[in-house]
Amino acid sequence: MEDFTANEWLEYTVYITATGVYTFALRVNHADAGEAVHLELNHTDISGEMALSDGNGAWTDYTSRAVQIDQGVYVLRIHADSGTFSLNYFDVQKVH
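Predicted structure:
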């Protein structure tokens, strides 16, 4: 997703196969400081604001805090809070 801008969002249906603790990784590219994003599951903020550090024009990985999630189907929303950046992909990882 190129030029992902403040107040825009993307939604994906995700299936959590087992109850556990998960993190969400985002790979983004941005040129300016001050960009931020947050993640929601079923319209509930699960990450808080994730500040994207000073942009250097390179693809960089950012990981959310760990969150307990029950098994089930959810709507994941990636919400741009400020700035403009590109999103390459996101990944859901079970921590334990």
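Summary: The chain has a mean pLDDT of 91.
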